[in-house]
Amino acid sequence: MPAGNWIGPFQVIRLEGWLEMPQRNFDIETRAGVNGQAVYQTGRRSDAIRLLSVVDVLNQAFAELLYESYVARVGEIHQIWQMSVTPWNTKYMILHVHKMRIQNHIFAIGGLNNGATTLACMWDVLPVEEVAT
To answer: What is the mean pLDDT of the chain?
Structure first.
């Protein structure tokens, strides 16, 4: 288990949002003039989840390159580790990555890369259950 916050192969300083697993879904059918309801189990699904990541990098050029690496992973399925925990061993498909800001800092110490620039991105991910073939 890796330490810290990870989205697939990318480690980040901060990862905000709530990870969920796919849940059972139902369709409920009611008809006018008919007593009761029909309930159909329609499988395990989930809605997309939005996460915010922040990571430090050397400079603005590296931030742009890292963002391009994020975008290249769209459509792939990865595990997400939040504070060294991935709930239920669920994997997530990366649907979209939005660049929120690249911010240069006058003075910065620490972080993952001891960088003077931070990259903040919003991720849309979808919990999925991989089916064995």
So the answer is: 87
